[in-house]
Amino acid sequence: MKTRVTAGDETKHVGSTSWRAALVDRQNEQWLRLREHGEQRRQHLSERATGVLADAIQWLAELPEHSIHAVVTDPPYGIVEYETKNHVKLRAGRGGVWRIPPSFDGAKRQPLPRFTVLSQEEISALYNFFGALAYGLNRALVPGGHVFLASNPLLSTMTFHAFQRAGFEKRGELIRLVQTLRGGDRPKGAEREFSEVSMMARSCWEPWGIFRKPFKGTAADNLRTWGTGGLRRISDDEPFKDVITCSPTRGVERQIAPHPSLKPQRFLRQVVRAALPLGIGIVYDPFAGSHSTLAAADRLGYLSIGTERDAKYFALGCKAFARLRALDARS
């Protein structure tokens, strides 16, 4: 017996029309096919969420066109930090390209990738990687589908350009105001001699690129046909805004999902909600990690699917999903 999934819990059905009903029907048909697509190992986390153990670019290459409606993802900012040799060092607490900050003030800081050490060869590989990802997403998304892509001030120009070169329209940037330990350090080994010097500005913000797959015709026509093209408003009186203040993930949430790049539910739920303007469609996270994006989507009543190629993180995400979804994440 087929399970029929309705649109997001918050979807307004004021003046419901035949085109809206058709969108929901198409969504349900796509969902039944998509969550079983491919031969890779998968975990159906709920009726509305599925995680797949797979490489994102390979999985996208095998996906039919127009299969997904929005993307919200926090990718590996530099491919080098997730290479096996550096990830082994991270898990062993020895760093490699990862900087293991010291504990102070009774708090243990999370590791951070040192993107300033990337070689020209690694930077070229990074650009090519994001280009391949962008081409795959451009084919898989429906016309008007949005991509929210996390980055950082050191690499955002390059990664965002790769998406524009692949044919996406840049629709702005979402700025997450968050103070991390990135930057602000004195010269290593000469901290006292140059106590008045910082090698970089302390990072207090995180850029998320906002991209849209082009569409033909009017925005209203595309919304009726595909359910995409715009961003969901916060309320009738308030649009979605491009600045969100949100502190780093801490406490119980990090205990639930100890992933080095975990984003808080109170932030993700705002972004994921905006990604489907009518609350109808399927959200995809190519780098699902802790499955936090899927948990945010499920909490909103959205359908979502995520791929993760690291077996340990995939297992972590499957275990953490329900508890992340259940969190009271009011900002």
Number of strands: 11
Q: At the first level of CATH, what is the class of the domain at 33-41 and 52-78 and 129-257 and 267-285?
A: Alpha Beta
What is the helix content? Answer: 25-40%
State which percent range the strand residues make up. Answer: 15-25%
* CATH architecture grouping of the domain at 33-41 and 52-78 and 129-257 and 267-285: 3-Layer(aba) Sandwich
Keywords: Methyltransferase, Transferase
EC number: 2.1.1.-
Family: Belongs to the N(4)/N(6)-methyltransferase family.
InterPro entries: DNA_methylase_N4/N6, DNA_methylase_N6_adenine_CS, RM_Methyltransferase, SAM-dependent_MTases_sf
Brief characterization of the structure:
34% of the residues lie in helices and 18% in strands.
Please write out the topology:
Blueprint: H1 18-34, E1 42-46, E2 49-53, H2 56-61, E3 68-73, H3 84-92, E4 98-99, E5 112-113, H4 120-140, E6 141-150, H5 156-165, E7 169-177, E8 205-212, H6 219-226, E9 243-245, H7 251-256, H8 265-275, E10 282-285, H9 292-300, E11 303-308, H10 311-326
Parallel strand pairs: 2-11, 3-6, 3-10, 7-9, 10-11
Antiparallel strand pairs: 1-2, 4-5, 6-8, 7-8
Question: What can you tell me about this protein's structure?
Answer:
- Among the domains are: about 35-40 and about 50-80 and about 130-255 and about 265-285, Vaccinia Virus protein VP39 (Rossmann fold); about 80-115, no CATH class.
- It is about 35% helix and about 20% strand.
- The protein has helices spanning about 20-35, 55-60, 85-90, 120-140, 155-165, 220-225, 250-255, 265-275, 290-300, 310-325, and strands spanning about 40-45, 50-55, 70-75, 100, 110-115, 140-150, 170-175, 205-210, 245, 280-285, 305-310.
- The strands form two sheets. The chain has a nine-stranded mixed sheet, with helices on both faces.
- It is globular, with a radius of gyration of 20 Å.
- The relative contact order is 0.18.
- The model is unreliable at about 95-110 (pLDDT under 50).
- This is Methyltransferase.
- Keywords: Methyltransferase, Transferase.
- Belongs to the N(4)/N(6)-methyltransferase family.
